[in-house]
Amino acid sequence: MSTRETDEPTGKETTGHEWDGIKELDTPLPAWWLYTFYACIALSMVFFVLWPSWPIPTADGWTYTKGIVGYSQRQRVEQLTAEARADLEQEMEAMRDLSLAEIRTDKALMPIALKAGEAAFGDNCAGCHGSGAQGFEGFPNLNDDAWIWGGSLEAIHQTIENGIRWDDNPDTRYNVMPSFLSDGILTREQVGQVVQYVRRISDQEHDAAKAEQGAAIYDQQCGFCHGAQGKGMTDLGAPNLTDAIWLYGGDVASLTETVSYSRYGVMPAWEDRLDPLTIKQLAVYVHALGGGEPVATADAGSATTPATDDGGSASGETRGGL
Amino acid sequence: MATSAPDTVADGKAHGLQALSETVAADTEALADDRAEAVNAKHNRPLYESPPKIHPKQAKGRFRRIKWIVLFVTLGIYYLAPWVRWPRGEGIPDQAILVDFSDRKFYFFFIEIWPQEFYYITGLLILAALGLFLVTSVFGRVWCGYTCPQTVWTDLFVQIERWIEGDRNKRIRLDQARWTLAKLAKRTAKHGLWLLVAVSTGGAWVFYFNDAPQLLGDLFAGTAPTPAYVSMGVLTATTYLLGGHAREQVCTYMCPWPRIQGAMFDENTLLVSYRWDRGEPRGRHKKGDSWEGRGDCIDCNQCVAVCPVGIDIRDGAQMECIQCALCIDACNDVMAKVGRPPNLIAYETINAPERRAQGDYSGIRLLRPRTLLYSALIAVVAGIMVAGLSTRATTDVNVLRDRNPVFVRLADGGIRNGYELKVLNKLHQDRTFEISVAGLPGVRLFNPVTREEGTVALTVPADSVGSVKLYVSLPKGHVTDGTLEDGSAAVDFVIRHDATDTRVVETMPFRGPN
Ligand code: SF4
Ligand code: SF4
To answer: For chain B, which residues score pLDDT lower than 50?
Structure first.
């Protein structure tokens, strides 16, 4: 098959290969190309010697030739991260001694605190509250302006630090709503009436007659915590029942379930797991997600709507702020 | 060897040339000894040996002079441009042409380009390419012959070689001579000077990327940034290798342009051409011999001796020819000596001999479909660029809408969307922009950090980007009244700075429940 021969028109040798009658001239590679090629080979040897290059299997896993320069990308990353940490240390140190309100108004530190808070949120909180803090049923949306336990910087900070219904923490936020049906406080019918009343004060479709009956039951059983007008009480962790935000749903079925058997959501106390600075940054971050309540002095001018009847309402104040 | 017809000859001419090269073959061999050989012509080019060195002879004449002028001007621009100052104000580089990587800006006299405006550079490159197409279709490879850096630097390197080692014949003899101290001295001097040119070439390059006066000091002090030294090293090596050693090999083998431009030639393109209808039959000529019955070419091969790429223009248009026109100078010299009219080799269109034979040769035709097309394209691109540059905004606004969550329902039943605003202040002064929203009924703007409402102030330092997180909310009444169509509406961000007459409106989607 392979016979080298001289190509008549050009006088050059062929490679001896033939495809469908087509023969190829044995034209050499240009010298500059060859030299570049050799140079690359030579250079690859240098790389081999200097840098990590060759995997080696051993009895307990893989290792590799380390290269005489001793370069390692992992070490480099560690070194760079350490350097970046050291660079940040000063700001972090400064933040440690500042109050939450002071961090919030510090133009230089606030962006750093927000970034750090965002990172800590992603690592620790996103599992329940969602990566965008949008929440799920039973896990509050932190973007909105309804706060069960208060939306001021301090209130948020305290919630993160001590958790909610977290038994191991003596300062944890704690309350229990009675299970009105299973505890035998209300009959099934009465529960239905209260539910209709709650739908009425939250401006939803309702059965007017039942709601009227429910009003009396509400005053007796619920008003103490949720407020006479249903605006809630953050000190007690009693949600506002008149707003558009429902942790477990505002439809008749969900409300009936809540009133009948109560709910018992739990959040860990983070002071056992996170350092105080991280908790501060988290508080600042969550507060800046959009629903945070004004800080007393600095933001006094922004709170335009006066506090409502029970004085503890979160939504009443911030509504003006939006 | 020279009997096969060169296969790059343009169609119209091929037939005549084939006949002619056969008739002169015998003469050529007889006279071969002391005459320059077209070693790089395709049919002579050795495939299995390293290419023989080409020793171009010094040419004298009009085109050589033009080439010197172009060389001085282009090298002058290259070396001096980074030193031109252009005051722009406090804290901003005053270098007229500067590619500032650390601040990601490109300065060109009064023009200042930010990374997101890189399309200006793209436009510039498109313009350059179209210009090259136009010039090539009219005048052939003038780029290659006069202004290509490879040509300019090779010219410079050959000239240095000539100063030290003498002209063509002396150089050939020196090449063949045994190694003596004198030869060693000459070679050392030559390579030394070449390296000097190479280093200063690389040196000049880095000035385009740093403040030149400052960098010059740093370079000598050894405190310049590493990339500067690396770039210098790479450019020194390439200049020395490509200008001193590779020379015509770059044009023949490495550069794609000689191959591409074949597509831009037509029979009306001006090319350096040998007027074979006047020159043939060629042959040696003694003083007093009659010119009757023979052509004007005396087969002295001076055109070959001066050729920097080592070809014979009399073989017709060839891919190797860089159109430097030095063979025109050489032959005009010869024609003057033997008393014949000049321009046996001249700039001529490919169809000229044919048209001359028909008696209607009347110069070149500039208006041809391809020149008109290239000109029109250039006008369009240039128009777009001028319009773009003259209306270049000094403020740019980019808005990103939060997608996680897409929207937030508020306690009062309203809907809130989050946005990240980036405002680019391209003026050399700090500005405090006023940001507000419009376009939706009852819409409210809120900054969660400063707690500003309605109108938010954002201070952006000179020449930088400022960003702010903003919330826009729509009251409950408008969530369900049809303001949101399929859960979506548009909201306008208005960014204003009255003192500089700036008002930018950026329209963004606003989402709510379906
Ligand atoms: S220089 Fe002119 S006369 Fe001499 S060989 Fe070339 S074309 Fe002929
Ligand atoms: S043939 Fe003439 S124009 Fe072409 S490269 Fe040689 S000297 Fe220059």
So the answer is: 1-33
Q: Do B356 and B462 lie in a common domain?
A: no
B460 and B430 Cβ atoms separated by less than 8 Å: yes
Chain A residues whose CB is inside 8 A of the B451 CB are: 294, 298-299, 302, 321
Q: Are residues B296 and B279 in contact, defined by beta-carbon separation less than 8 angstroms?
A: yes
Residue that is written with structure tokens 């002064």 in the block: B429
Q: Which domain holds residue B407?
A: 395-511
Say whether B449 and A110 touch across the interface (CB within 8 A).
Answer: yes
Q: Are A201 and A242 in contact (CB under 8 A)?
A: yes
CB contact under 8 A, A243 and B451: no
pTM of this structure: 0.65
Binding residues of A for heme c: 125, 128-129, 177, 222, 225-226, 267
**Paired tokens of B412:** 């009062």
Number of continuous H segments (helices) and E segments (strands) in chain B: 17, 14
Separation between Cα atoms, residue B30 and residue B438, nearest integer Å? 92
Same domain for B192 and B80?
Answer: yes
Q: What is each CA distance from B242 to A41, B45, B155, B232, in whole angstroms?
A: 22, 20, 12, 15
Euclidean distance between CA atoms A149 and A162, whole angstroms: 12
Do residues B248 and B99 both lie within one domain? yes
The C-alpha atoms of residue B152 and residue B128 are separated, in whole angstroms, by 19
List of long-range contacts for B222-228, beta carbons under 8 Å, 24+ apart: none
User: What is the C-alpha separation between B375 and B370, in angstroms, rounded?
Assistant: 8
Whether B131 maps to a domain, the answer reads: no
| Residue in chain A lying closest to B413 (CA) | A244
**B410 touching A, CB under 8 A?**
yes
Single residue among B209, B227, B254 that ends a domain in this structure: B254
Are B235 and B161 in the same domain? yes
In a domain, B301, yes or no: yes
Which of left, alpha, beta for A243 (phi over 0: left; psi -120 to 50: alpha)? beta
Shared domain check, B190 and B82: yes
Q: How many CA atoms lie within 13 A of A260 on its CB side?
A: 12
For residue B424, the Cα-to-chain-centroid distance in whole angstroms is: 31
Pair B249, B217: CB distance under 8 Å = no
d(CA B473, CA B441): 10
Q: Nearest C-alpha of chain B: how many angstroms from A42? A: 18
Q: In angstroms, rounded to a whole number, what is the distance separating the alpha carbons of residues B181 and B179?
A: 7
Q: Hey, is A302 helix, strand or coil?
A: helix
Q: What's the mean pLDDT when you consider all of chain B?
A: 85
- In order, the DSSP letters of A123-173 are HHTHHHH-TTS--BTTB--SSSS--SS--SHHHHHHHHHH-BS-TT-TT-B
The residue of chain A nearest to residue B241, with distances taken between CA atoms, is: A32
Assign residue B475 the CATH number of its domain: 2.60.40.10
Residues B275 and B312 in one domain: yes
Instruction: Please judge whether A290 and B453 are an interchain contact, meaning their C-beta atoms are less than 8 angstroms apart.
Output: no
Give tens-digit pLDDT for B35-83: 778 888 877 776 666 778 889 999 999 999 999 999 999 999 999 999 9
The answer on B327 and B306 residing in a single domain is: yes
Contact B267, B236 (CB under 8 A): no
- Number of domains chain B is built from: 3
Higher-scoring residue by pLDDT: A24, A296: A24
Spatial contact of B105 and B113, defined as CB atoms under 8 Å apart: yes
Is the pLDDT reported for residue A312 higher than 50? no
CATH of domain A188-261: 1.10.760.10
Q: Is the CB of B335 under 6 A from ligand 2?
A: no
- On whether both B210 and B298 belong to a single domain, the answer is no
What does the block give as tokens for B437?
């929203």
Q: How far is the CA of B28 from the centre of ligand 1 (A)?
A: 13
CATH class label, A88-173+266-299: mainly alpha
Instruction: Pick the closest to residue A142 from A319, A318, A290, A321 (CA basis).
Output: A290
Residue range(s) of every CATH 1.10.760.10 domain in chain A: 88-173+266-299, 188-261
